[in-house]
Design goal:
It comes from Dovyalis caffra. Helix content is 56%, strand content 2%. The protein is an all-alpha fold. Helix 5 (110-137) runs antiparallel to helix 6.
Length: 331
């Protein structure tokens, strides 16, 4: 018994060091893992810091400024007069190519070049009218597109009138500022047409027409730009350049009498005297020798007359009416 007890005692006591050893090894392993984690964290932080420092020493390159466009080059067969005149336009490439393909006489004068540019605009305007007519014919089931096409067609008709009957008549008569006003109106009507179609652009034909209208407006803009240079600088095409406006600090000097400004000879601006009135409007009507409505007075104005202004004197009163001034009434 004694021996057995002793043996039992001796066999049970050695277990404690094993537990202590396991605990020590677990602690050592945890400490090693913690050290490894801290080492990796510090290494990653050091790497990040190094990367940031490297990036700081190598800043990103600044964007280079866009280079200025080289001057356009044209075929050697292009008349130099056309190239020189087209420098006054915003779309020089389109200007030179369109005039080179048109019937410009040899050794053309600046006025002949301008008239050719107007002719290019007029020819393309007819094409645009045909395209809009096709949109209208194929828009039976679309009220929105039908309305847009009708508005566009009306605007193009007004544009054509300004070009063919107004600008064509004004330039030969030396009415340069009148030609500027009419050509500017023609360009504006073309823009109105494109703007109308913008809200009904749901077919490929409408999209093609709007694209063509952009081309048409570039031709009209070129013609207008040359008229502006011709008005300001005359035949000296070497001094022509793209138009500048008040936004760029350029203010035009008012033309002297007889230089082609205004709508009629002798007009110097301001309000004309009542004694020069061609028609008078008053509330009492014809009993006092005047028209009762403004529309009646407008209707009496002659059609397509350029000699002078047609002046209507409207006496004091309230006139509740909608007045429409037809295209052929140039007042």
């Amino acid at each position: 018994m004694t021996t057995l007890t002793t043996n039992l005692t001796s066999t049970t006591h050695p277990r404690k060091p094993r537990n202590l050893l396991c605990i020590s090894m677990a602690s050592l392993l945890s400490f090693s893992l913690l050290s490894l984690f801290l080492f990796l964290s510090l290494s990653l932080s050091s790497s990040t810091t190094t990367t940031l420092r490297i990036n700081q020493h190598h800043p990103t390159k600044q964007k280079q400024k866009p280079r200025s466009k080289p001057p356009p080059s044209f075929p050697a067969s292009t008349p130099p007069e056309i190239i020189q005149a087209c420098k006054a336009t915003r779309f020089q490439d389109a200007c030179v190519s369109s005039l080179s393909n048109s019937h410009v006489p040899q050794n053309p004068t600046p006025l002949q070049i301008i008239q050719s540019a107007i002719s290019v605009s007029d020819t393309n305007l007819k094409t645009a009218q045909s395209m809009v007519k096709s949109i209208l014919d194929t828009s039976t089931g679309s009220i929105n597109r039908t309305t847009a096409a009708k508005n566009c067609m009306e605007a193009l008709n007004n544009s054509q009138y300004r070009i063919t009957r107004s600008t064509g008549d004004a330039l030969p008569r030396g009415r340069i500022k009148d030609a500027r006003a009419w050509m500017s109106a023609a360009l504006l009507y073309q823009y109105d047409c494109s703007n109308a179609l913008k809200y009904a652009n749901d077919t490929s034909l409408t999209n093609q027409t709007m694209s063509f209208l952009d081309t048409l407006m570039s031709f009209s803009s070129n013609a207008l730009s040359m008229i502006v240079s011709y008005d300001a600088l005359g035949n000296d095409t070497k001094s022509w350049g793209p138009p500048k406006t008040e936004r760029e600090g350029v203010w035009e000097i008012r033309s002297a009498p007889g230089s082609g400004g205004g709508f009629g000879s002798g007009f110097r601006g301001g309000f004309p005297p009542t004694s020069a009135a061609d028609a008078t409007v008053c509330k009492d009507g014809r009993n006092n020798g005047c028209y009762k409505t403004v529309q009646e007075a407008v209707n009496t104005a002659p059609d397509n007359k350029w000699e002078r202004r047609y002046v209507i004197h409207i006496k004091e009163g309230v006139y509740e009416e909608i007045v429409r001034v037809p295209l052929e009434k140039k007042m």
